[in-house]
Amino acid sequence: MARSPENGVKKGPWSIEEDKKLIEYIEKHGQGNWQTLPKQAGLNRCGKSCRLRWTNYLRPGIKRGGFSAEDEATITALHKQLGNKWSRIAAHLPRRTDNEIKNFWNTHLKKKLLRKGIDPTTHKPIPDFNLLNLSQTQLSSVSNLYNVISPLDTALNFQASANDLIKFQLLQNMMQAINPNPLPYVQGNTNLADLIQLNRIFNGANTDFTVDPLQAQSMTANFCNISPLLNQQQTSTSHSLQCSDGEMIPGPIRDDNVKVPSNVYNSEYSLPSLFSATPESSVVNPLENFMHTSILAEAPEQSNVFDALESLVDDEASSSFWKDILG
DNA sequence: AATGACTCCAACCGCTCGAAA
DNA sequence: GTTTCGAGCGGTTGGAGTCAT
Where does the protein end up (predicted)? Predict the structure, then answer.
């Protein structure tokens, strides 16, 4: 790492010679006082650096690397119980150092839990994980949120309450913030025009909008991506899009500069098909099915999706933050 | 092959705590 | 009771290695 020396004391990686000096000294005299050790051992290091080197790497019997599945499970369980108390966790894993466990946690286990939708800090399911990992089929269920805000639709006949709009805006911002794979041009907030435009799309209005088909696949998991795409409509040509159920809806627009696979305009790239306000008769779309089974079904009494979502959030994790967002 | 982005992890930094003076 | 000092702990840094473009 070669950090710059300070006060004439060497920092950075230890050389073989330094390790040898430290090992020989401790084997001969024991650890003793770490402050005086470097001088007596002939090392141009601070005592702290010597102690760390010895404790984490040179000390006999240290086991390094090669964490087993059992180790992982142990560390995860202990972390759930103890939090970031690495020394206490290390005490349960013989021959492992706290520093190594900490590094292993930060570089592997933490990510592993996140991939499973578990908050590595609380070890509880991430409330919005289902939204984060929506499959394409799940996407249109989320689009029900837009339907709830309806009618935003035709002729700018905007009737949704300001309260709902605020909720929606917050939700969308949240999803943008947590979007694991944001598209480069997906930035900023959605304005009212976006919402209106969006609703027109979802409700089958004859609206042009732009989707780079090669990027469409990666964006399907995040409905908040749609809005900024709408802003590109002026430069595009209109195409229809065939949904999985055969229904034609407007867009996306092909960029002629992009080689488009032959299947680009089939269901793989389709936006969600339109949804109905009468769930009982229209849950033919798997997306809606997801919505109704995963969210609405959880809260049959709820009058709208926000209420249903709130219920879901309450069930999954009692986060006041989400409750605040969802009102 | 070159370059940039990303990941890993050894080592450092700053803080806290407890013991000794 | 206060100060000092050594040790330990957890968070962070940044160089090296790897991967993707």
Answer: Nucleus
Residues A276 and A143 in one domain: yes
Residues 6+ apart with CB under 8 A from A208: A233, A236, A237, A238, A250, A251, A253
- Rounded to whole angstroms, the Cα distance separating A55 from A66 reads 19
- Strand B footprint nucleotides (protein C-beta < 7 Å): 7-14
State whether A176 and A277 are in the same domain: yes
Å: A162 CA to B2 C1': 54
The CATH number that applies at residue A75 is: 1.10.10.60
Tens-level pLDDT at each residue, chain A (327 residues): 333 334 578 888 888 888 888 888 888 888 778 888 888 888 888 888 888 888 888 888 888 878 888 888 888 888 888 888 888 888 888 888 888 888 888 888 888 888 788 888 888 887 655 544 444 333 333 333 333 333 333 223 333 333 343 344 444 444 444 333 333 333 333 333 333 333 443 333 333 333 333 333 333 333 333 333 323 332 232 333 232 233 332 333 223 232 222 222 222 222 232 222 223 233 333 333 333 333 333 333 333 333 333 333 333 333 333 333 333
Separation of A182 CA and C7 C1' (Å): 46
Of residues 15 to 54 in chain A, which lie within 7 A of strand B by their beta carbon? 45, 48-49, 52-53
Q: How many CB atoms lie within 10 A of CB A83?
A: 13
Nucleotide nearest to A53 (CA to C1'): B11
* 3-state secondary structure (DSSP) of residue A36: coil
Specify if A171 maps to a domain.
Answer: yes
How far does CA A40 lie from the centroid of its chain?
51
